[in-house]
Amino acid sequence: MWFRNLQIFRLAADWSYSTDALTAALQRGAFQGCSAGDRHSLGWVPPRGEDGELVFSVARQQLIALGVEQKLLPTSVVRQYAQAKIDQVEAAQGYKAGRKQKREIFEQVEAELLPRAFVKRGLTYVWIDPINRWLLVDASSSTRADEVMEQLKLSLGELPVTLVKTQLAPSTAMTQWLAAGQAPGSFTIDRDCELQAAADERPAVRYVRHTLDSDEVRNHIAAGKSATRLALTWNDRVSFVLTEQLQVKKLAFLDILKEDAERQAENADDLFAANFTLMCGELSQLLQHLVEALGGEGE
After folding, report:
1. Cα–Cα distance between 52 and 49 in angstroms, integer?
2. What is residue 165's three-state secondary structure?
3. H-assigned helices in the chain
4. Strand arrangement, sheet containing 204-207
5. pLDDT > 90? residue 199
6. Interaxial angle between packed helices 215-222 and 170-180, expressed in degrees from 0 to 180 and rounded to the nearest 10
7. Which residues are CB-contacts of 254 (< 8 A; sequence separation ≥ 6)?
8. C-alpha distance from residue 58 to each of 5, 55, 252 (Å)
9. What's the whole-number average pLDDT of the chain?
10. CB atoms within 10 A of CB 237
11. How far apart are CA 141 and CA 166, in angstroms?
12. At residue 38, does pLDDT exceed 80?
């Protein structure tokens, strides 16, 4: 359940959904699996498993989860079966099938194959912190986050959230930190980064497991390249990669944090609650310090 990525949103000051109110709203979009003719289905599922509530809450911190089900039926497979059907039809009728007839055969074959297709299931967690007014989506791409936010908007009827903006652009800040050889406050620079030029072709240089406090990196910056991704560690407890879009990726928590949760737990439910509580505490502080390192929030 520990988040691996953060798409960061700011809740409006008038956000007022209690756990009960949020649960009632999510019920309207509860997950229903794909029917025989569906390719894709999504909806809200209990984050703790089938027997849990749609909203898991501890100390006013809320966790919800969007379930996604997708049938794997490649177009190439449908085309292969459809072509065999077309060949049979053409042989029977004695002339070539027209475009409309081929399309109808393709659609018919697709409808016949869908109920037998393999199903891929996925789960995307959303953490809502009404105290500090954060909404965090555990998604590596903005596309997946947009899917979650659209479904949440449908369930709530409105979605009073905004993307977080900072006074200092993440790319500008990361470039300054690399040039100086150090990050501010409780952050330290790790060994991964990507530098990109502003030229038309946007030439880029990527460093992986490489010392970044070097003349080579500074020369790239002096030549006009800016940081678009930078690996950082916060307070020697959480490591991550920060992107120019203010996305947090590849989150990794210190093992001792997870061990603390295991020591506090007597059963699986206790462990889930302990993990969530510890994660919320760590990430709340990390986000506060990160925004401060970027000059505070902007308009």
Report:
1. 6
2. coil
3. 19-27, 75-93, 99-113, 142-156, 170-180, 215-222, 255-264, 268-293
4. 204-207, 187-196, 226-234, 238-243, 248-253
5. no
6. 140
7. 236, 237, 238
8. 21, 10, 22
9. 90
10. 14
11. 20
12. no
**Which residues contact residue 235 at a Cβ distance below 8 angstroms, ignoring those fewer than 6 apart?**
186, 285, 286, 289
Q: What is the rounded CA–CA span in Å between residue 84 and residue 221?
A: 58
CA 291 to CA 21: how far, in whole Å? Answer: 30
Calpha distance 175→114 (Å, rounded): 50
pLDDT one-digit tens code per residue, 151-160: 999 999 999 8
Question: How does residue 44 score in pLDDT terms, banded at 50, 70 and 90?
Answer: very high
Beta bridge partners of 178: none
For residue 42, which amino acid is it? Answer: L
How far is the C-alpha of 62 from the C-alpha of 121, rounded, in Å?
23
Q: What is the CA radius of gyration of the chain?
A: 24
240 pLDDT tier (thresholds 50, 70, 90): very high
pLDDT band at 178 (very low <50, low <70, confident <90, very high): very high
The residue type at 147:
E
End-to-end CA distance of the chain: 33
Q: Helix (H) and strand (E) counts for the chain?
A: 8, 12
Distance CA 5, CA 140 (A): 6
The pLDDT confidence band at residue 268, using thresholds 50, 70 and 90, is confident
- Residue 114 DSSP code: G
Q: ∠ at Cα 17 (15, 21), nearest 5°?
A: 160
The encoded tokens of residue 117 equal 């297709």
